[in-house]
Amino acid sequence: MVAALECYFDSRASRRVRALWDALESAGVPSLRDLTHGRHRPHLSLAVADRLDPVAVVDALAGMPACPPLPVSLDYVGQFVGRVLWLGPIPTAGLLAHHAAVHARLTRAGIAVDPYYHPGRWVPHCTVSMRVPRPVLAEAVRLCLEVLPIPVTFVAAAVADHNRGEYHPLPAGTPSGTADSASS
User: Which runs of E-coded beta strand occur in 58-105?
Assistant: First the structure.
């Protein structure tokens, strides 16, 4: 899975996550800072698939924001199989309801997403490393814990395809989302 509907963080939260990426890199942990095309931004993905058509996603979400300015707080560290390290937001009722609404719209539009991102299975997270080397795993977790909590407000959305180096901000000024002028 390489394409995602991503919600981007406000500038203060983004700076804090990027500082964590730098600290992880200094400790020998490859972060999202330089992964693939180097265009990763601190984010939370609402949907992931092998491919997402940005126009179809915008059309499916017409009339609702892809990522409303929901306040969340990254409060814990988690790990998926394969030594993927992430920061987790408290899964508030608002966040879970918005995620479910997005998926209902995508499903009605015939847009298939990875089952791990379906409501009821989704683990909201902000990935910080895709493969932490075993010898530095404890140090990586310690570095993550040092920056928590991180208050976040979503400020922009995009459909990103990281393997292909494609990035499609949702248009500014539309009901479907907002673009952020921050560089990726």
Answer: 71-80, 84-89
